[in-house]
Amino acid sequence: MASLLIADDHPLFRAALKQAARDALGAVELFEADSLDAVLALLDAQPQVDLVLLDLHMPGNHGLAGLAAVRAQFPGVAVIVVSANDDPRVVRRALDHGAAGYLPKSAGLDELRDAIRCVLACETWLPPVLRASVARAQSAPGDADLASRLASLSPQQFRVLALVAEGLLNKQIADRLDIQERTVKAHLTAIFERLGVRNRTQASVVLRELELSDPARRIEGG
To answer: Which residue, 62, 118, 116, 126, is CA-closest to 91?
Structure first.
């Protein structure tokens, strides 16, 4: 039986995704999360999860950083990005950073079901309306290299990097992750080397390069 995690902060949209998953697969194990922290905690507690439907702009996630976190910490889990943003360049970036599919929030139930079935069959899925434009879209400069460097980090190293990007000091990171401060320093040395950066500020910039604006928030803001 397949196991899916529905990760979105809107209860009604989670309900629609759950119904689509049941329609597509019949018997299915479903989990829900409404923030990136909840996603990572649940994947850690439920290693049997096969597929995550990940909202790009849920709390704690500001674009592709959440996708990178899931792919780095749980490389065996497939991810379908779910977003109101259907810019072909954004879709291209999501695929470059390891998404197995991309699902606009405007998609119908048939597309939802197709996406789930295809990705669980180890195929890549895009909505038909976007396939041609995404094929023409060029990867962002440096994205492939950045994705490769992030993928080279261990799960714990990625956690350290994320906390550095939040502005935490070494002792705070050690307390948060329940490890020794010298272990944090060792992780940072490895992170700097693998990312090709010299300091914490440059390492933080790497994650900020994955941030995307939320079109829904731009509309709400006028």
So the answer is: 126
